[in-house]
Design goal:
Layout (H helix, E strand, L loop, with lengths): L4 H19 L3 E3 L2 E3 L7 E8 L8 E7 L6 E6 L7 E2 L14 E3 L8 E6 L5 E12 L6 E8 L9 E6 L2 E5 L10 H4 E4 L17 E2 L3 E2 L5 E4 L15 E7 L1 H7 L2 E3 L2 E4 L3
Parallel strand pairs: 2-16, 11-17
Antiparallel strand pairs: 1-3, 3-10, 4-9, 4-12, 5-6, 5-17, 7-10, 8-9, 11-16, 12-13, 14-15, 18-19
The chain binds copper (II) ion.
């Protein structure tokens, strides 16, 4: 049977989109590590930008880790199928951990600056400038270090997953702009209680491409050095991600005192 040209192009187009969506979201690699209890230990990983926005280059990236004071902590006792909110700080499970050390690397973007929380702890970076990353078939790694999490010996946590919020920016728009989600790819965990379709929900991505589709970094407890207390049974998995307050406060590009992105 003869395949008509428009049908063939459509098939190719849909196929390519499918591959992008299945394999090429922005993710961290490596995406997990075993607990390292040494002082000042860090885990090295990288955020891999995998595609642009439609036909637009990625001109910058913002990555923000949960800040541990204003972020959401959840617990799962069924291997991650269901999660419930933990009404306490993440320090119930780990000693300080998850802060970031930016590795000076300008291979993808010539400008990079640290983002700190209100207490001055580094929790993220933005990077940008230069020619940017072409929309297809390129791979843009941005390396960084995560301060090692040390589990509290008396907690029942057997793992903790840090969920950063990442934005790959292709064109600078304001949140209210109808094109905002076509101009930036978001890899952000949706915050419970935020109305889908609202301005706040734009931070979670475009429902037509990737919505509520974050990158993750999981740290597995060293059960030899820090066994679970007998009362814990099988133990629990913990995850932590930025709240809406933190996304709006920290997920920004500020350059020479001016907010560049999102456009004010
Ligand atoms: Cu994608």
């Amino acid at each position: 049977m003869k395949l008509k040209r428009p049908a063939l192009l459509l098939a190719l187009g849909v196929g390519a989109l499918g591959i992008d969506q299945a394999f090429a979201h922005t993710r961290l690699s490596p995406a997990s590590a075993d607990e390292n209890r040494a002082m000042h230990a860090t885990y090295v990983t990288q955020a891999n930008i995998a595609h642009g926005c439609g036909e637009m280059n990625v001109i910058g990236e913002v990555l923000v880790m949960p800040d541990q004071t204003d972020s959401i902590v959840e617990v799962s006792s069924d291997g991650g199928k269901t999660w419930t909110r933990h009404n306490g700080p993440v320090s119930d499970f780990i000693q300080a951990g998850g802060f970031i050390r930016v590795i000076k690397s300008n291979e993808v973007f010539p400008i990079q600056q640290m983002i700190s929380d209100p207490n001055g702890n580094p929790i993220g970076y933005w990077a940008g400038g230069g020619e940017g990353l072409p929309p297809h078939n390129w791979y843009g790694p941005i390396p960084f270090r995560i301060q090692a999490a040390v589990f509290q010996d008396n907690s029942c946590a057997k793992s903790i997953t840090f969920i950063p919020a990442i934005a790959d920016i292709c064109e600078i728009k304001s949140v209210a702009d109808p094109e905002f989600n076509h101009a930036t790819n978001f890899w952000v965990k949706a915050v419970p209680g935020v109305e889908p379709g609202s301005l706040d929900a734009k931070y979670f991505g475009d429902p037509a491409h990737a919505y509520d589709s974050p990158a993750t970094f999981k740290v597995n407890r060293n059960l030899t050095q820090s066994p679970l207390p007998a009362s814990c049974g099988q133990g629990v998995d913990v995850r932590i991600y930025p709240s809406m307050n933190q996304l709006k406060r920290d997920m920004k590009v500020i350059w020479q005192g001016q907010q560049i992105w999102p456009a004010p």
